[in-house]
Predict the structure.
Amino acid sequence: MSPRPAPDLDSRRDQVLRAARAVAESDGWSAVTMRRLAGELGVTQPVLYSAFAGRQALIDAVALRGFGDLAAALEAVDAAPLPRMRAYLDFAAAHPRVYEAMFSMPLGLPFAADDTPEPLRQAFSALHDAFPDADGTRAEVVWSALHGLATLDAGGRLRPAHTQARLDLAHRLLTEQETS
């Protein structure tokens, strides 16, 4: 009998991340437990802990991948302000639990610091490209406004029929300085 081959850790991590995202999207983050994921994947909990130190490390990894996905979504459209704003809101609406992990749950990821992970930098950079200034303050304000719109919309606190009107108004307000 030959020994079992060593598992590919990157492949295992990817499998666990995909399962965590799927469970979160279907049943919310409270349903994402190492026990449930082990059952979903047909492995033991120690197998999961070989890929992630714990639930928080897993959530951080989901959020980090989410930032990479957000950066890709932003970079896939024209660098003009309105397409980037629309892509941001579309991403948040299409991936509500990933977005929640990125912005609403406690994370062990540093933001706006020297050691900010590259996917976070890329996502911010994609907004900064659409709203350039010397120090990134405009992009921070844009990100804040978009996050507010995305969060309020996800919570059902905004009128659905006015989504485009809100986006158009935010675009005008956030680009007003450029035309003045």
